[in-house]
Amino acid sequence: MSMFELDQRIAEQLTQVALNSAVQVRVGTANSFMVTASTMIPLMQMFEMGGVYISASRGAVEIIQAFEAIGVDVSHIQFIDLVSSGILGGTDVSYSNVHFVDSPIMLESILLRTLYVLRTMDSQRNFVFLDSVNALAIYNDDRMLAEYLHTFINTFRQREVLTVILNVPDQTPPLVLSNLDTYCTDIVDRGQVVIL
Amino acid sequence: MQPTTVYTRDRCVTGIHGLDEILRGGIPYGSTVLAAGTCGSGKTTLGMEFLVRGALAGEACAHFTATEPSVKLLENIRQYAFFDMNMVDSGLINVFDMDVLYSWLGLDKASFELDDVHALIKAIVDIVNTIGVTRLVIDSVTTLCYKIKSEQLIRDFLFTLGKKLATLGCTTILISEITSATENAHWSSFGVEEAIADGIIVMGDSERMGHLLRFLQVVKMRGTSHSRAKHAIELTPLGVMLTPMLKWGASADKTSRWGQ
Predict the structure, then answer these.
(1) Per-residue pLDDT reduced to its tens digit, B143-160
(2) Is residue B217 within 8 Å of residue B201, measured between CB atoms?
(3) B232 to chain A, minimum CA–CA distance in Å?
(4) B99, B135, B146, B233: which could join B61 in a potential S-S bond, CB 3.0 to 4.6 Å?
(5) Nearest CA of chain B to the CA of A70: how many Å?
(6) What pLDDT does residue B260 have?
(7) B contact set with A (CB within 8 A)
(8) What is the nearest CA distance from A120 to chain B, expressed in angstroms?
(9) Of B211, B233, B248, which is closest to A102 when you measure between CB atoms?
């Protein structure tokens, strides 16, 4: 992990959020995993939370292996993979903490599967990490996605499950982006990478 | 002015995630509810979970299976974590094969006449009465009614059975197989079941860009106010789970029909 530098300011910012918060994490195309790791690692290690990671941008195995490569164990995190069912042989994985939903178009199924997985978890404090809104926007109509995020965020806020929503703003439709700004209680903005 | 006292009927709490919320507390006791759905929509799982939740609360339950042998039914349902075979072994959930019941009654025939229908009603009611069943599922009433050739006789059968079971305080789910769950569809195969039932729960699939999303909708439930919205469902190892379907996702439903 020494070679991989985390953004420590994200951990500091996370100390300010409550369990019923919804945090929008804005990333750029180049810093996505660094920001993801900088958010996930404090939640898992500092705050000792359990969690569900919804992967719409890449297959869950790729994300798990990216964490393994920086020496982070995510075996206690449950992954809901929305990508791999669309690839022949994609669901043949050796990780027992990976669940599959047929497609990112099955928005209600994603919500129900997440609620189901949360019901099976022992941890008292949990987060749901949605990666990412822009990936969901590839498949879903703007109005439907805006409606979904409204339902999604309120469902977990009501259950005191911390919602973390990853988003590349440049790739997100304006309607969805403005709704996300309204529903989320906090924002971690790493959406623009400034090259000096 | 004195506030009006609102009378509410006692409820059979289904215990199914989300369904009691939709029904504002559960199914009114003694109701006969038609669970009408297309193939693979989750009717049998819903019916079985209804019984399991009752058994967990100490209620005696019965399941009459006409579509598949009880051994096969139990093998399929064992994959769900909410089901415990001990409930069957201890007699809390009693599973009856309709074919065996027909043999006992000497009804091994292609079609039933009036006397046969009365004998069948008496047998079911006797079982319910003897065991003290408070939750009953018949899966499916469609298969059973195929043997009853007259529409009038089907109506009499369902009406009399429902009335007698209600008198015994038994809440019944009649599973009905339909080929389409669209807004113009009938909720039953013979067209009479839906008129007689106290409640109708429709289950089907909505197609969204080539993917089938299971849904459930309560279209009628006498004795209670209820949501009439479509709800998406998932069949999880912990049981059926529901969430309201996205309103903007419903536009595709209007053109979707099962099998097309």
Answers:
(1) 999 999 888 999 999 999
(2) yes
(3) 6
(4) B135
(5) 34
(6) 35
(7) 208-209, 211, 213, 232-234, 236-238, 241-249
(8) 9
(9) B211
pLDDT at A152: 97
pTM for the whole structure: 0.90
- CA A108 from centroid of its chain's CA atoms: 16
Look at residues A152, A121, A162 and name the one whose alpha carbon lies nearest to residue A20.
Answer: A162
How far is Cα of residue A131 from the mean position of the Cα atoms in its chain?
4
SS3 assignment for chain B: CCCCCCCCCCEECCCCCCHHHHCCCCEECCCEEEEEECCCCCHHHHHHHHHHHHHHCCCEEEEEECCCCHHHHHHHHCCCCCCCCHHHHCCCEEEEEHHHHHHHCCCCCCCECHHHHHHHHHHHHHHHHHHCEEEEEEECHHHHHCCECCHHHHHHHHHHHHHHHHHCCCEEEEEEECCCCCCCCCCCCCCCHHHHCCEEEEEEEEEECCEEEEEEEEEEECCCCCCCCCEEEEEECCEEEEEECCHHHHHHHHHCCCCC
pLDDT for res B187: 72
**What is d(CA A126, CA B143) in angstroms, rounded to the nearest whole number?**
46
Fill in the amino acid letter for B55. Answer: A
Which domains are present in chain B?
11-255 (3.40.50.300)
Name the residue facing B248 among A109, A144, A155 (closest C-beta).
A144
pLDDT tens across A4-54, in order? 899 999 999 999 999 999 999 999 988 999 999 999 999 999 999 999 999
Q: Which of B206, B212, B243 to substitute to test the interface with A, most A CBs within 10 Å?
A: B243
Q: A103, A109, A112: which to substitute to probe chain B, counting the most B Cβ within 10 Å?
A: A112
CATH superfamily of A19-190: P-loop containing nucleotide triphosphate hydrolases (3.40.50.300)
Identity of the residue in A103, A109, A139 whose CB atom sits nearest the CB atom of B232:
A109
Of A120, A139, A147, nearest to B246 by CB-CB distance is A147
Q: What is the pLDDT of residue A3?
A: 67
Contact across the interface for A112 and B243, Cβ inside 8 Å: yes
Q: Check if the beta carbon of residue B189 is closer than 8 Å to that of residue B142.
A: yes
C-alpha span between B191 and B4 (Å, rounded): 39
Q: Give yes or no for residue B257 having a pLDDT over 60.
A: no
Tens digit of each residue's pLDDT (9 = 90 or more) over B27-51: 999 999 999 999 999 999 999 999 9
Q: From CA A98, how far away is CA A113, in angstroms rounded?
A: 12
User: How much is the average pLDDT of B109-127?
Assistant: 94
